[in-house]
Please model this.
Amino acid sequence: MTSTTTRIERHHYDVVVIGAGGAGLRAAIEARLAGKKTAIISKSLFGKAHTVMAEGGAAAAMGNVNSRDNWQVHFRDTMRGGKFLNNFRMAELHAKEAPQRIWELETYGALFDRTKDGKISQRNFGGHEYPRLAHVGDRTGLELIRTLQQKIVSLQQEDKQEFGSYDARIRVFSETTITELLLDGDRVAGAFGYYRESGEFILFEAPAVVLATGGVGRSYKVTSNSWEYTGDGHALALRAGATLINMEFLQFHPTGMVWPPSVKGILVTESVRGDGGILKNSEGKRFMFDYVPDVFRKQYAETEEEADRWYTDPDNNRRPPELLPRDEVARAINSEVKAGRGTPAGGVYLDIASRLPAEEIRRRLPSMHHQFKGLADVDITKEPMEVGPTCHYVMGGVEVDPDTGAAYGSVRGLFAAGEVSGGMHGSNRLGGNSLSDLLVFGKRAGGHAANYIDQLTARPRVEVTAVETAVETALAPLQRDTGENPYTLQQDLQAVMGDLVGIIRREAELADALVRLAELRERVAKVSAAGGRRYNPGWHLALDLRNMLVVSECTAKAALERRESRGGHTREDHPTMDPQWRRVNLVCSLEGDTVRLDRKPLPKMRAELIALFDRAELAKYLTDEELAEFDALAAAEAEDTDAAGKES
Amino acid sequence: MGTKRQFRIWRGDADGGELQDYAVEVNEGEVVLDVIHRLQATDAPDLACRWNCKAGKCGSCSMEINGMPKLGCMTRMSTFEENETVTVTPLRTFPVIRDLVTDVSFNYEKARETPAFAPPADLAPGDYRMQQVDVERSQEFRKCIECFLCQTVCHVIRDHDDNKPAFSGPRYFIRAAELDMHPLDDRTDRKEYAQSEQGLGFCNITKCCTEVCPEHIKITDNGIIPMKERVVDRRYDPLVWLGSKIFRRGQVPQTIVTSEHSPGAVRSSASGQGVHSHAGGSHDSAAEVQAQQGVNWHREVPRPTAPAVGANGKLPLTELTSDRAAAPSPFGDDVTFPLPPEHLNFAHPKQDEKH
Ligand SMILES: Cc1cc2nc3c(=O)[nH]c(=O)nc-3n(C[C@H](O)[C@H](O)[C@H](O)COP(=O)(O)OP(=O)(O)OC[C@H]3O[C@@H](n4cnc5c(N)ncnc54)[C@H](O)[C@@H]3O)c2cc1C
Ligand code: SF4
Ligand code: SF4
Ligand code: FES
Model:
């Protein structure tokens, strides 16, 4: 019996940032710049967080490529993308502040691709009216995280000069997992976790915690997300008394790889379809023509001939249905597979080989050519790819105050930013809006966490009993040897979520999912992990399972409740958007052990913001009552300008 | 459609370990990391291994496969013969934590020592102007995913722990090169720094680092050599290649590091004759045994143990306070300094003397 099992390393900080992705690092930088002692905690090594995988770019209306771009246009695009369910204030702040946040990165050493006149280059992306994404080839996320990482190093070097230690004011705890937040009454007092490497425990005492833990994709079998995405931050927030919103909205990207098994879920870029790639089922039929919804009928081609002419003559022909919005394509692929017309690996074929000369494919899609050659041994110039929808991003998350990032609910001193927070993207996120979201709200959360501490009169204290309980909970799976293997449980959970709470949802299946999740909850409570405490992935998974479970329950419950289809939530039994539902956010909280769901009205957009849209567009989303209000506003404004006109 | 394939995976920790044999089902199209995941889900749930992205983007899953430093997620099973035994070992240059996980903190320390980007004082954010051709040279180095494969392969530290303090390794040479080539970096001494502080002189341009880089960064040709050119050490011709690049432990030729004021060149007495062992399959059984036992992985880490409970059946909680900055105040967290004078019970020896 060594002392290692009973030792708890204890640290005192002002701000503890959980998560070392874009949001976490930006928050930490801000807290440190405000003079706070800051800790950064990450489940993997420093610089390996999910942000590293982002490819396309970061959206910011800098207007470098098209000078007509500005924050109002970006704001409009974001609201449209989210089907008007976004928190308008977050979308507004995001659109206004994103350019500054990107420019700031250059002062940290980032090297974006350039325009001819030496400014940051910007590229087109789905849903963005003008070229807007700052990028570095197809590795923008890597540039972003490396830049922030290096900025932190540079701050540490300053501290070394001043105090003699790199760790004097900002320290990175890598491969450390937080399992519990500790409270003093309703105030955050600290965080408890373990070092993955040694299995030893660590306690942070801190009056403010910033959550930046990313998403929940590991609850699905087919996902572009890594093992880290077990919804820890979502679950920690719930257990601390905070609330989650929009948990029913998950973004499924229509084309992820499905074969070979090694790469199931990895993204296949949308440009394949943009450059002429077509989708076929196992019978060789180009099926997308059967799935054009009425609202899009006018913009999309009806015959293959017309669709094919579009690539060369877009003015006189309509677009091929392969280029419908992401959710439509994902849904179509899903139906084909369910109807038994899928490929052996459960996807459909994406064929570019028969559409373009090999030479041309290699020139236009070098990274896809390389990816399929390298990972699947498939030569996309000769064979079709197999693709299917993959779980990509969670729009839902911690309900926060838009300006400060402070979590709502009963808890104080808890902040959230990045994918773990909710509201910014509404029911559907536009590509490129996540990276800028991380920077804008990361900075805000870090800064306001620092402010919050300044207003405290006394430091909250950590209860010893709470620590004891946390230790016991963490060790429990190792002490049991009667329970099930965590990997089996994870597979079962993924099966429930993938089959019953997947891309197309039905009332009966969702109800069934809730029953099964309840069963799983019993089994997860008894999970056991073999082996010891040192770098034991089985044990780590066992501890993550309860987080995945509670977050999955939130998603299933909210999906059952929302009887409409919108963005990342599709109900087969309620296939259309309902303006009444647009006014409602579904808020999850924890009552004892069970997830509780409440309806909460959406905050109302300010007059000058709603005036940025035209009536015809709003009519698609708003209720009659809201439209009447809009008309009254417009009339009042017209009168104002009239009056002003007469006076002068 | 799966077939059984033979694997030998190093299992153990800092105290030593051994290669264990596994027969694992392998399906078409799988990579080495998939096999490791299958093992975790079946025979070896506690097999330790790092990974994140499974797409060669994060640089977490570095390991040595048949002796060659590689990313597990980018090494397809189809590159091996059906009846070939695949041997997977942890990165050799870094101390083992457990199984395939090594302590790579060496790299983070070196990163921290490399002076950061120095922004130009006279430019406001948003006013940076650079041409694409000028940023491209640095961008090549910024593709680095920090997999540390180049670090583990570099013979200067691979078999010589004692060179570690003075040598930052190829990853950090290209960091210096990147900043050197950055159009707006305000510092002008990057090359000199690389020579005097990072140990650039140790490098004798074997190009092993370039060979293993999964991002195909031309570490030597585009990074190291241009930096050497200006600060070239006259006693040493950088283009003399060593015929032998990597040696297994136990058969390392005598390497003499000439270190005068600044670190000089590395010379090897076995030039041309040592066994080139990228594939790891040296046929020296003694060396093989030594390598498996993890010689020199001197890290004291306790073995896994069951949790101990106190008399009350609960865990006795003892607390260890950190000696670093950010440790708790011995006066309690509520006390701020300076204390108000009225709270002090200190009496100055001469306080009663009238001034
Ligand atoms: C393949 C792919 C491509 C993408 N492309 C784009 C794109 O082009 N543009 C765009 O805008 N967005 C893109 N996204 C989305 C975007 O990358 C993510 O939404 C974003 O990076 C999330 O950042 P984050 O800072 O919130 O969290 P992350 O970067 O995921 O970081 C989470 C951090 O929290 C830590 N953590 C989690 N739980 C714990 C715990 N319990 N204890 C301690 N630490 C914990 C993790 O270790 C990690 O460091 C893409 C996503 C994927 C998967
Ligand atoms: S070229 Fe230099 S840095 Fe690279 S492996 Fe050889 S000695 Fe090491
Ligand atoms: S330079 Fe290449 S091999 Fe070295 S750490 Fe970077 S990506 Fe890996
Ligand atoms: S898992 Fe990311 S590089 Fe292999």
